[in-house]
Amino acid sequence: AITGDDSTGTGRQIAPWRTIAKAATNLFPGAYLAIHQGDYYENVDLTKAASSTNRIRIIGYGMTSGRFNTRNGYYTYDGVSLSTNVGNSSLIYIYPTAHYVEVFNSTLGPATNNTSGIMMVQGSDALPGNSASFAVISNNWFRSIDYINIMGYGGTNKVINNWFSDGDGQSDVVRMWGKNVWVTNNVVTNV
């Protein structure tokens, strides 16, 4: 919480940490991180492991932050609001080993200086099978993204029921490589 303290906080509601980065270092399988109202503008590196039965959930409650780097799979983002003007980046960066990442009910943008909304990056070679797979990106608003809204490699990724608006970058709204990719029921306006 913006009223928290990274030195004396415990991570509980009565004694929150100040930064998302501090909270991220204390995550564990099955944990959820509630980010309360405020402007944080951090670039947060999420490195803790999770599993199919113990997902890590990042839940936004009226917050705005900069970026999340997702290094492991089984993370769920719900209700986060991200924006940045840091160039050549993405708001949610999903590493090749981060399978089964979910992004729901979130607002991504505005983002400037060649910044993507969500990037699921390529593995060590060009084969889609070596990249993040089984992602679900649904019910989000991508607004004023000045590069590609969603770009990804990997298989069985789903981009469903999103709204893309007011982009001023590349013409690609979604650029995906891989087998079994679903891109359906999305709305594109003024891009």
Descriptive notes:
There is one protein chain. The chain has about 190 residues and is an all-beta fold. It is built from 1 helix and 18 strands. The strands form 3 sheets. Strands 1-3-5-8-11-14-17 form a 7-stranded parallel beta sheet. It has a 6-stranded parallel beta sheet with strand order 2-4-7-10-13-16. A 5-stranded parallel beta sheet has the order 6-9-12-15-18, with no helix packed on it. The longest helix has 5 residues, at about 20-25. The protein is globular and about 45 Å long. The model has no long low-confidence stretch (mean pLDDT about 90).
Give the oligomeric state of the chains in this entry, treating copies of one chain as homo and distinct chains as hetero: single chain
Q: Helicity level, as a percent range? A: under 10%
Computed structural class: mainly beta
Largest sheet: 7 strands, parallel
Distance between the termini: 34 Å
Number of strands: 18
Instruction: Write out the strand line-up for the largest beta sheet, numbering strands in chain order.
Output: 1-3-5-8-11-14-17
Beta content: 35-45%
Query: Roughly what is the average pLDDT, rounded to an integer?
Result: 90
Instruction: Work out the helix count.
Output: 1
- The shape, in one word, is globular
- Which residue ranges are poorly predicted, with pLDDT under 50 across at least 5 consecutive positions? none
The radius of gyration computed from the alpha-carbon positions, rounded to a whole number of angstroms, is 16 Å
Summarize the helix and strand pattern as letters: HEEEEEEEEEEEEEEEEEE
